[in-house]
Amino acid sequence: MVDGEDCARRVAMGFGVGAALGSSIGAVYGTYGAFKYRVPGLFKIRYIGQNTVSTAAVFGVFLAAGSFLQCYR
């Protein structure tokens, strides 16, 4: 059994790892999508940034939830 502080640390670490992984995948996918859909000019940077942040948030939340579920197991 782990205490609450250790569990919070694990959840935060899970979010950080998920966000790092998600941001790298989001950047690659966003770049691909920007060129595939022919996003004009500087809107490419916005498109890639939105994909990067949203994918990082989703991966981070899922890994944090998984870490939370594993805390008291």
UniProtKB/TrEMBL annotation:
UniProt-listed SMART domains: Romo1 (SM01378)
The species this protein was found in: Raphidocelis subcapitata
Superkingdom of source: Eukaryota
Family stated for the protein in its record: Belongs to the MGR2 family.
GO biological process: protein import into mitochondrial matrix; protein insertion into mitochondrial inner membrane
Protein's name according to its UniProt entry: Reactive oxygen species modulator-like
Membrane in keyword set: yes
Transmembrane segments: 12-32, 52-72
Cellular location(s): Membrane
Keywords, alphabetical: Membrane, Transmembrane, Transmembrane helix
Chief location: membrane
GO CC term (a single one): TIM23 mitochondrial import inner membrane translocase complex
Record's keyword annotation contains Membrane: yes
